[in-house]
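Kindly inspect this chain:
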Amino acid sequence: MLAASAGTLPDRLAGWAIEPKWDGIRVIADVDARGARLWTRNGNDKAPQFPEVVRALKALAANGGPLVLDGEIVALDARGRALRFQALQGRMHAESEATRARHAAATTTAFVAFDLLADGGRSLTSLPFTERRRALEARVPARRTASVRRGESVRCGSAAAKKLFARARAEGWEGVLLKRVDSPYVAGKRTPDWRKVKLEREQEFVIGGYTAPTHGSARDHFGALLVGYYDDRGALHYAGKVGTGYTVPMLALLARTLAPLRQPTTPFVDAPRARGASTTWVKPVLVAQVRYNEITEAGILRQPSFLGLRDDKAARDVRLESTGSAAGAVTNGLLCAS
């Protein structure tokens, strides 16, 4: 089930719950005592990359029976607090078992469950959110030290909701989610029953090319990624160059990954004219996470910065999300409405 951009919110949010918007890898965990599969939206199984999460999920199923959870894999700091998506990059893109083990030792992770879709072989998706939430609370602990933990969820209009939103601002969360408490779980659908309220300008973009390093540049491989997004007709629109935010290992990984994807023509329907050999076009199949200051009226990113490479989302699903934010409306009283 996918969340829509907040857009225009109802005048009052009675009948809604508010939750953190986790900045990790969204997966469906299909678990029994023998094992677990961690399915991303585009069908990748993340279980081999996160064996500690698999072990914890298996133990949960051994105690209470098989279950299917919706949640997010997040990286943790030393105090057990969720970090940003960039902290997972080493785990996601390790190219050998030894490298993966090294990153696993350096980066603690957890699976944060926020919905229970099946319990003991019984589907719960047709039940309202409040009933699924009660079932989740009965199966998954909320302990911040656990490798599998339950995400927070509080009713809008409560003091707890106001405190949660204040924490989101103070701790620099990517955003929050609003969920109708009477909504069923509609798999594979983007629905206004779940709404994203962004606190930062950040989203996925499709990589369609790259530029050569500028003369005298201190780095190799490439200068900037050329990124864009699809419209509903399937056309890829250019959104600008992303030239900052790269680590040295990520530059090398991107160069190796992009090399076999080169093609002679632009994948963008509206790309600026390429200058000689300075621009290389690629097949638009890779997805980058990008933070930016704003998007111009012409649809071009200002001050974009690369955050990471996503292998959990299909390029064809990337759309330009709403550049407006409902955060002001939420914080100015809607969360406290009765």
Notes: The chain is about 20% helix and 35% strand. Residues 51-64 form the longest helix (14 residues).
